[in-house]
Amino acid sequence: MVILCPQVMLRSVFRSLRTNTVSAQRSMSQSSLAGRVAIVTASTDGIGLAAAEALGKRGAHVVVSSRRQANVDKAVALLQSQSIQVTGTTCNVGKGEDREKLVQMTLEKCGGIDILVSNAAVNPFFGNIMDSTEEVWDKILSINVKSAFLMTKLVVPHMEKRGGGNVVFVSSVAGYQPMQALGPYSVSKTALLGLTRALAPELAQSNIRVNCVAPGVIKTRFSSALWKNDNIVDEFKKQLSIKRIGEPSEIGGVIAFLCSDEASYITGETVTVTGGMSCRL
After folding, report:
1. Which residue(s) pair with 214 in the sheet?
2. 186-208 burial, b if ≥16 CB within 10 A, otherwise e?
3. β-strands 165-170, 208-215 pairing
4. Whole-angstrom Cα distance, residue 197 to residue 212?
5. CA gap 46, 20 in Å, rounded
6. Helix (H) or strand (E) segment spanning residue 115
7. What is the pTM of this model?
8. What is the CA radius of gyration of the chain?
9. How confident is the prediction along the chain (281 residues), in pLDDT tens digits per residue?
């Protein structure tokens, strides 16, 4: 018969508690969105795809979309290879009929809607803001702001039927600190901060939380003109506490958190994920 001293027994107990706690947390995080349905716009690449992946890994059925079928097919195959429940379709969020088709297909395939991640954005202009045209402003505000609101308006009634839901807008650090040569785009991202604040109190009455994520410079194809330029990267790094460019998965994880019950007391907020860049208004 082996008799353990009290110190050894205590260490064994604490080790067991630690292991069980970590295991429980891992299990909880992997299934924290089980049974929920998430629409993620512009989700076949970059931050949108990372958000779909993060939501899917936590148990949500994700609906991905972009304008090109080939991109949709590629994203669906990638997510399916990770055992994520996924449905995909083409959608140009700037077109009303496409937005309605996306919502209707989600209802038919998945039975409801619990989460909307509005990630679609364009930037057709690079230069002095005074050289931007009316057409540039129409395009940027239509896709980056108006479509985000109209998608929300479409999904809210279906979230209400499910007893509540979550909306997350993807803004940018440029919404707080306009970037040189990206004036109209920066203004559109500032508008999303305001849209978040305007919608949150109204939709809270329906148990729908509305939040926003403002990424810094993230390594995506969309922002490649910034992070592929060594001189620009060096200038950005001077403003960063974490001296590197961010990864899409680091934004996807924050989005998934905001959509989870762990964030149940958070609404009307914008979470900046910038590597420590000072960016408050």
Report:
1. 272
2. bbbbbbbbebbeebbeebeeeeb
3. parallel
4. 9
5. 35
6. strand 115-118
7. 0.87
8. 21
9. 555 555 545 455 445 545 454 444 444 456 699 999 999 999 999 999 999 999 999 999 999 999 999 999 999 999 999 999 999 999 999 999 999 999 999 999 999 999 999 999 999 999 999 999 999 999 999 999 999 999 999 999 999 999 999 999 999 999 998 988 999 999 999 999 999 999 999 999 999 999 999 999 888 876 666 666 777 777 777 888 898 888 999 999 999 999 999 999 999 999 999 998 876 64
SS (H, E, C) 72-105: HHHHHHHHHCCCCCEEEEECCCCCHHHHHHHHHH
The Cα 240–Cα 271 span in angstroms is: 16
- Verify whether residue 176 is a known catalytic residue: no
8 A C-beta contact, residue 20 and residue 222: no
Of 187, 183, 214, nearest to 277 by C-alpha is: 214
In whole angstroms, give the CA distance from residue 68 to residue 66.
Answer: 6
- List the catalytic residue out of 169, 185, 236, 257: 185
